[in-house]
């Protein structure tokens, strides 16, 4: 089984990133995660069903609009009832790595991850890119 550090390194090794859960509210963690990628010059795409732009970046409406899903790591900062549907799309689109921020999963999400063999590529046990991301990037140098 892959440990947390290995999954974090895997996540940050892909050339593209997408964020679901960002909004125009600067105080929300989804927006803070989007800003984290921007501040580190990471190619990031915000996914939002109605906003055309977030943090100056053009959004896409859904994960199915990702131009290169198999090369894109996905950050999820949504309520668990939305996360479960996103996890299903992750499987369908072969998205290689997922980071579910704290609070984005519940028992049903965790069971889905485990039942579908996703545990080695999904961070879902309280890991936080805002807290852990820079340390992982440094360890990868």
Please explain how this structure is put together.
The chain is of the alpha/beta class and 141 residues long. The chain has five helices and seven strands, in the order αβαββββαβαβα. The chain has a five-stranded parallel sheet with strand order 2-1-5-6-7, sandwiched between helices. A two-stranded antiparallel sheet has the order 3-4. The longest helix is centred in the middle third of the chain and has 14 residues, at 80-93. The radius of gyration is 14 Å and the shape is globular.
What characteristics describe this protein?
5-stranded parallel sheet, 7 strands, two-stranded antiparallel sheet, 5 helices, alpha/beta, 141 residues
């Amino acid at each position: 089984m892959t440990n947390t550090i290995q999954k974090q390194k895997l996540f940050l090794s892909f050339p593209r990133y997408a964020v679901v859960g960002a909004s125009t509210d600067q105080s929300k963690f989804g927006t803070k995660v989007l800003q984290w990628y921007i501040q580190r010059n990471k190619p990031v795409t915000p996914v939002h069903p109605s906003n055309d732009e977030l943090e100056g970046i053009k959004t896409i409406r859904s994960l199915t609009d990702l131009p290169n899903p198999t090369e894109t790591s996905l950050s999820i900062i949504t309520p668990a009832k939305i996360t479960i549907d996103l996890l299903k799309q992750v499987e369908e689109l072969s998205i290689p790595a997922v980071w579910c921020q704290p609070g984005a999963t519940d028992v049903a999400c965790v069971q889905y991850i485990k039942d579908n063999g996703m545990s080695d590529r999904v961070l879902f046990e309280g890991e936080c890119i805002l807290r852990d991301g820079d340390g992982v990037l440094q360890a990868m140098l």
